[in-house]
User: Fold this.
Amino acid sequence: MEELVGNLWHKYITHKAQPRFAAAAVELKDQHKKLNLLLHAWGADAGLQIQNAVPAHFETYQGNLKKIAGTGHRHDIAQKSAERLCLPGKIDLYPDASLNLDLYRWLTAMAAYWPDACQNWFLLNQQVSAQVLTELPGLTPLYQRLCAAEIARRPALSLLPGEIAEQEMVIRHALQNPGSELQLPVSHYAPVPVTMWLYPDMQRPAAAKSSTDTQDDSDSEGGHKKNQKESDIRREAERSEHSSGRTGLLLFRLESLFSWSEFMNLDRTQDDADDGAEEIAEDLDMLHLSNEQNRSASKIKFDLEVPSAYSDDEAISGNILLPEWDYKKQQLQENHVSLHMLQNLHCQNRDIPEHLQKIARQIRAQFSQLKPQRMWRNRQEDGCEIDIDSWIEFNAEKSAGHTALKAYRDLNQKQRDICTLLLADLSLSTDAYVNNEQRVLDVIKDSLGLFAEALNTLGDPFALYGFSSKQRQMVRFHEIKSFAEHNMGKVRARIEASKPGYYTRMGAAIRQSTKLLAGQPQRQKLLLLLTDGKPNDLDKYEGRYGIEDTRHAVQEARQQGIHPFAITIDKKAELYLPYIFGSQGFVLIHQPEQLPLLLPKLYQQLSD
Assistant:
C-alpha cells in the first residue's frame, strides 16, 4: 500500500512541477524520414544526420514545487553540430499533438540555416529565427502558434526573483521579435531552456583512447549481439581514473571487533547476470570511462587480437597505400591508408556444401538459360558457308545489273560485355546470429557460394573479395577469387574458410576494388558491396567521417565508369546508405536468411 501511495504521489507532484501530455506525444522515430527530407530540402548539408538527443543538465532556478518533486534539472533540448542534429526522442510539452509536431518541424528548419560555428548562442538563435521566417514565410503562422505556447508554459514572471525575472522577460521579447535583443542579462542561474531554439552540441567525445583500450573496444563492432538493447542515443562521456579501492584512510576502533574470521579475497563486484546497467545508464547525465584491470571483453572473446601467422591468411602483395577523404578539410589525404592483400594458400578443393547443393542445381539451370545463344546471320559478304536463298536471289537480280554479292552466312555468338566484383564485409559484427542456427557470416558465405555458382554457369567474369580493418594501418583485403581464378573447388574452400575480422573501413576497400575493376577490359563494370552495417573503425572513422569517405570512394568509382551497388541487412541502412550510394544504389534485405537466394536474382536484374 505504501508503494502504491508513493507512486501516485510521485506521478502527481512530477506532473504539477513539470506538466507532460503523454496522450499528445509525438516521437522522433515516427517522424524521422519526413524531418530528414525537410532538412535537406531546406538546404542543409547532405551529410547532416538526425539523431536522438540526450537530456541536458541546466542549473536553473527551482521553485518550491520543483524542489519537492526533484525535477527541473534535465531538459530535452535540440542540439546542433557540424555532424548531426540531435532532437528530443519524444516531444510531449503541449496538450495538442499538432503543436508538438510543429516544434519538430521548426527545429528542423532552424537546423537547415544554422551555421557550423556558434559564437553567441543568444544572438545566433534570433538571427536564424529571423532568417527562417524571411526565407520560409509559410512557417510564420506555425512560429506564432509555437511562440504563444512556449511562453505560456514557461515559469510565471511573478514567481521569479528580480534578476531571473528580468532575464525571462528578455527571452520572451526575443521570441516574439527575433533580433530585437542584443544581450541576455547576467544571472547566477541559467535561464530555463527555450525549446524553440537550438543549442551547441553538448555530447562531447570521449578522450583519446590509450593503447590498452584497443582490445576492449573490439566488442563495439558486434552490434547485433543477442539480448542486447539497441539505443540510438549518443551519450556524453569522459575518461576518468579507475579507483582500485586501495587508497584512502579507514578509521575504526579495534575494540569493536568481537570475533575473528578468515578473510577470503573474492570478487563479488562483477556478476555475469544482467545487473540493469543499461537502465542505470539511461538516468546518467555523463558516462565515465576508466581503464580497469579486469576487462570483460577478455572473458567474452579470445580472438580479438591479430591471429597467429599459422592460422591467418598469407600476404600476397606488399602494403598498398590508398588515399582517404577528410570532409572537414575537404581534401583527399594521399597514402593515408595501408591495405594488405591476403589469401588462404593452404585450402584444398571442395564441393559446394551439402545444404546448398539442391539450390545450386536450380540456380545453375536458371542461369544456363541466360547464356548467350549462337545464331546464324544471313546475307553476309563473307562467312563460313553459302546462304542458298541469298545466292539464288543474287543470280536472279544479276541480269538487272545488281552486282553486290551477299550470299554467305556466318555463325554469331552474342557476348556479354560485363564483369563483376563482389565485396563482402567480414567485420566482427558478422559473428552475430540472425536466427537460432545461422550467423551473419554463415549467410554471407552461402550467398558468396551461390553467387559464384550462378556467374560461373553464366560465364561472366567475376571476382570475390572480403575485407575488414583495424585502424588505417591495417585494412585486410582477402582475395577469395580473382578475375583470373578458374578453380571453383579452391574458391569454395576459401569461402568456407572465411572468418569474422575486425572493423569496417569501407572507403579503402571500395577504392581497391575500383582499381581491380578498372583493369578489366569489359565495358560494363559492376561493384557489389555486401554489408551488415555502416562504415566504422577504432579511430575517427566512426560517424560522419567514415560515411563521407565511403561516399567519396563511391563517387570516384562512378567517375571511372563503374556501377557501385550496396546490398545490406542493416535495418537502419536507410538512414545513411541513400546518402552514400543514392536512393537507387542499394537494396535492404529484411530477412537476412533469404539473401543467398536473392543475390543471384538481384545480379540478373542489375546486369540486364
Summary: The chain has a mean pLDDT of 80. The first strand starts at residue 26 and ends at 27. Residues 374-413 form one domain.
